[in-house]
Write a structure and sequence with these properties.
The protein is an all-beta fold. It is built from one helix and 25 strands. The protein folds into three domains: 80 residues, no CATH class; 154 residues, Copper type II, ascorbate-dependent monooxygenase, N-terminal domain (Jelly Rolls, Sandwich); 96 residues, no CATH class. Helix content is 2%, strand content 36%. Strand 22 and strand 23 form a beta hairpin. The N and C termini lie far apart (61 Å).
Length: 355
């Protein structure tokens, strides 16, 4: 039993003491309870002008929840004990329109018992052949297949398109990426087809877009790069994580691709010591875009989703967009970036990037 009438606006002070907010901004819309769940739906202005409230923006918000098994009595709230948790969300971002993919074919690209070294960071590269050939298909969804218990070990996965001139001798031959002994053929895999990062769920392409596979121009060989994060230097770990690609023979209107911008991992990316904050900038210049798009896509490309990616030092990310010297609306941004919650942001309206 829940006393719904006691639903009120509270806040905590710096000593974690719960206090009733003199400005009541939360309004109960409905409430219901069954044998397993209590559901409360409430509304609030995005910006309440109340110093005890946080504004709700397009950035990541960490929602904290706690409950007690008994209703609030005259003495006030009961301490929640272990019934508490937190979750990062983007409250204002649209959900993708997802059709059922249960009946669609799929194939998996997964590592097989990769030995994860007892060191802080490892990049592991594995070559695969795309099994769908002779006819064009569209990938409609990509799902991460993270080995149970390794949710914090697998930090991100990148899928690169490789040269079509490669032979199958390198299939199944995994190797530590960017290592002196890495096969030279791995260096031909430069074009990113897909990216997934920690905390992310599966990625669903919009109904009119798909990742093309099966034609002569599409990748026959791909390189999957898995970044393992092992800060505790745990020994004896083996991993079999990877990706599942769901596809359809029913073609969509547009082919999908990936464009990368920002700062690459390198020794030249330094944050000065002792700085409370520091802005790093990477530029995708007009000359670069003209070379990439000028001949092939003179009318530009249409951005429908953005993945903002950083590591533990990242606090906020902005993807800025300029045209002929004038700044456009931000493509994507997150002023409260959470390292453990890296999801694609689906844009409410597609944005055109011109050469």
């Amino acid at each position: 039993r829940v006393t719904f009438a006691s639903q009120q606006d509270y806040f905590t002070d710096e000593n974690r003491v719960l206090r009733k907010d003199p400005q009541q901004d939360y309004h109960l819309e409905y409430a219901m309870e069954n044998g397993t769940h209590t559901i409360l739906a409430f509304s609030r202005e995005l910006h309440t002008c109340d110093t005890n409230d946080r504004s709700i923006t397009e950035s990541t918000v960490r929602v904290i929840w706690a409950y007690h098994h008994h209703d609030m009595g005259e003495a006030g709230h009961n301490y929640h004990g272990a019934n508490r948790g937190t979750r990062s969300l983007r409250l204002l971002h649209p959900e993708p329109q997802e059709a059922s993919s249960a009946s669609l074919p799929y194939f998996d690209l997964t590592n097989q018992d990769v030995p994860v070294p007892d060191k802080d960071t490892t990049y592991w590269c594995q070559m695969f052949r795309i099994p769908v050939q002779q006819q064009k298909h569209h990938v409609t969804k990509v799902e991460p297949l993270i080995q149970k218990g390794h949710e914090n070990l697998v930090h991100h996965i990148l899928l690169y398109q490789c040269s079509s001139s490669l032979n199958g001798s390198l299939l199944g031959a995994g190797h530590e990426c960017y290592h002196p002994n890495m096969p030279d053929a791995f260096l031909t895999c430069e074009t990113v087809l897909f990216a997934w990062a920690i905390g992310g769920q599966g990625f669903t392409y919009p109904p009119h877009v798909g990742l093309s596979i099966g034609t002569a121009a599409d990748p026959q060989f791909v390189l999957m790069e898995v970044h393992y994060d092992n800060p505790s230097y745990a020994e004896g770990l083996t991993d079999s994580s990877g990706l599942r690609l769901i596809y359809t023979p029913v073609l969509r209107q547009y082919d999908a691709g990936v464009i990368e911008a920002g700062l690459w991992v390198s020794l030249f990316h330094n944050i000065p010591p002792g700085m409370p904050e520091f802005v790093s900038e990477g530029h995708c210049t007009r000359e670069c875009l003209t070379e990439a798009l000028g001949a092939e896509r003179p009318a530009g490309i249409h951005v429908f989703a953005v993945l903002l990616h950083a590591h533990l030092a990242g606090r906020a990310i902005r993807m800025r967009h300029f045209r002929q010297g004038a700044e456009q609306k931000l493509l994507a941004h997150d002023e409260e970036f959470d390292f453990n919650f890296q999801e694609f942001q689906y844009l409410t309206e597609e944005r055109t990037i011109l050469p």
